[in-house]
Amino acid sequence: MSKKTLLNSIYSVFLVLTLVITTFLSPEPSWAKRPPEIRNQDDLNISKDMHGQDLSGMEFIKYDLRGIDFSEANLNGAVFNNSKLNNADMHGANLQDSLAYASEFEGTDLSNVNFTNSLLMESTFTNSNIEGADFTDAVLSRIQQKQLCEIAKGTNSNTGISTSYSLGC
User: Fold this and answer.
1) Are 115 and 95 in contact (CB under 8 A)?
2) CB contact at 8 A, 113 and 134
3) What's the pLDDT at 93?
4) pLDDT at position 47, please?
5) How far is CA 14 from CA 19, 21, 97, 141, in A?
6) What percent helix, strand, coil does the chain show, rounded to 5?
7) Cα 160 vs. chain centroid, distance in angstroms?
8) What is the pLDDT of residue 33?
9) What is the pTM of this model?
10) 35-167 architecture in CATH?
11) Domain coordinates of the chain in residue numbers?
């Protein structure tokens, strides 16, 4: 096993354990943290234009964020869990070390996004623009990887990594 593969495995286990710990070992009972089905972005004071904002570490759990402009925003370590980001503008955003579980990125502009070390399981990317997106060490299902490889092109202007290379195409 190569050093890179071992580090990827350790990182994946760390992300899963962090998710389990924060979900099940919370001091509040689990029923107290359940969000409604889909929350409106107004509940979190999100405007339609979040361009260039520092939103690192923010949690967007079951939020309707369709059409929001997150372009060039710092979303490092952000959590998008079961959120709808359809037709959002996220070009040039930093989503390094983020968690986007079962979120919808359908029709979203993800060009030049940095998804390095992100957990993207069960998310959908249908009709999204991923030109220049960097998925280095991102956790994707094999099906997601194949679908993204079919449309992968370009090189990330910040990291210098090509989209197809970062996806392992």
Assistant:
1) yes
2) yes
3) 98
4) 76
5) 9, 10, 12, 17
6) 25, 20, 55
7) 19
8) 39
9) 0.74
10) 3 Solenoid (2.160)
11) 1-34, 35-167
pLDDT means over runs of 10, the chain (169 residues): 67 63 53 42 68 92 93 95 96 97 96 97 96 97 94 96 97
The token duo for 3 is 């050093």
Instruction: Answer whether 95's CB lies under 8 Å from 77's CB.
Output: no
**What are the two backbone dihedrals, phi and then psi, of residue 123, each rounded to the nearest 5 degrees?**
-85, 155
The values of phi and psi at residue 141, to 5°, are -75, 160
Nearest to 100 by CA among 112, 113, 111: 113
Are the C-beta atoms of 164 and 152 separated by less than 8 Å? yes
Q: Which two tokens stand for residue 60?
A: 């967007």
Q: Which two tokens stand for residue 91?
A: 């070009």
Q: What residue type is 6 in one-letter code?
A: L
Q: How far apart are CA 2 and CA 163, in angstroms?
A: 22
Which amino acid is it at 86? N
Token pair for residue 18? 């962090």
Burial pattern 107-138, b for ≥16 Cβ within 10 A else e, equals bbbbbbbbbbbbbbbebbbeebbbbbbbbbbb
Structural tokens at position 93: 């955003």
